[in-house]
Target: 3'(2'),5'-bisphosphate nucleotidase
Amino acid sequence: MSRPAGNPPYAAELGAAKKAVALAARLCQTVQREIVQSDIQSKADKTPVTVADYGSQVLVSLVLNKEITSGSFSMVAEEDSEDLRKDGAEEILERITDLVNKTLAEDGSYNISLSKEAILSAIDTGKSEGGPSGRHWVLDPIDGTKGFVRGGQYAIALALLDEGRVVLGVLGCPNLPFTSTSNLSGSSSGDQTGALFSAAIGCGAEVQSLDGSPPQKISVCTIDNPANASFFESYEGAHTMRDFTGSVAEKLGVQAPPVRIDSQAKYGALARGDGAIYWRFPHEGYRETIWDHAAGSIVVTEAGGVVKDASGNDLDFSKGRFLDRDTGIIATNKQLMPSVLKSVQEAIKEKKLASSPL
Ligand SMILES: Nc1ncnc2c1ncn2[C@@H]1O[C@H](COP(=O)(O)O)[C@@H](O)[C@H]1OP(=O)(O)O
Ligand SMILES: [Mg+2]
Ligand SMILES: [Mg+2]
Ligand SMILES: [Mg+2]
Model:
């Protein structure tokens, strides 16, 4: 697809993605401010989903379709409308429809109001299987729903896959301090909150406020001694094996305690140098989805970082809705990756030895 001379690659798609994520963030902030129990549902896999997860997916689908009119539309997204079509879901569907139409009316970009059927169809535009050929949007409408429900960190994570490769990513992090996560403890430093991270292949990574301040280039930290490194990991103990990551940190000689926050906001914080390492080792059998890592990984790599699985391989987003990767994911700078991988692989060997029958 030819593009006007001088335009960086995927400029139109990046602009559309930022607009989509920023609008979805507005709906999520409204819901998080006044969330009530009836806004929260539990899915068949026992994970939570809220009216905001659904509303965010509708708005992202709508904006992308409005802003990108060439080519076919394909999106791999976390949510689907199955539970909303069941008896008893009328009220939550009504709430989602109201939220979406109110957000659209306040924004004013599109003179449109969606019916409930249009809401359900927009959610179901995310059913693509993705894969190694063609272009596919990849969306986690709220990454870190548990954090969202708890009033903590969450992210709207949108990426574009082109011929199996992640070529752009946008992370909307409404609760992340705009400057640095050093004051995550919520100490009122008067810090502006809300950060929009974005990256396109070969163009670096940027951060701006959610209301569209001029973007600033970001880069990962340059720490090369693990003793001076801090690391990010999941807030949820169930999402990563803390005894394992604790043993890796010890092997590395990391002194600082882990900074535990929900969602891909950790990739954004790492990309701007707030910490040196992000790793994640879910329990055996957990299958990582591509929407949980596509946007975050390109923000880090375009900020000069590296993202690998525990075997030191790049993450492979071309295999459908799930990531084809070995145990665990590590994101850090180029200086630290070799020693982190070495410690992880030693710890895996010890864990296998410890758990294998003598
Ligand atoms: N049991 C689980 N183990 C690991 N990750 C999970 C699990 N259940 C859900 N997730 C998803 O993985 C991510 C966990 O990352 P983190 O703990 O860093 O927030 C979340 O995005 C969550 O997706 P979601 O919240 O979009 O449903
Ligand atoms: Mg979920
Ligand atoms: Mg997720
Ligand atoms: Mg999600």
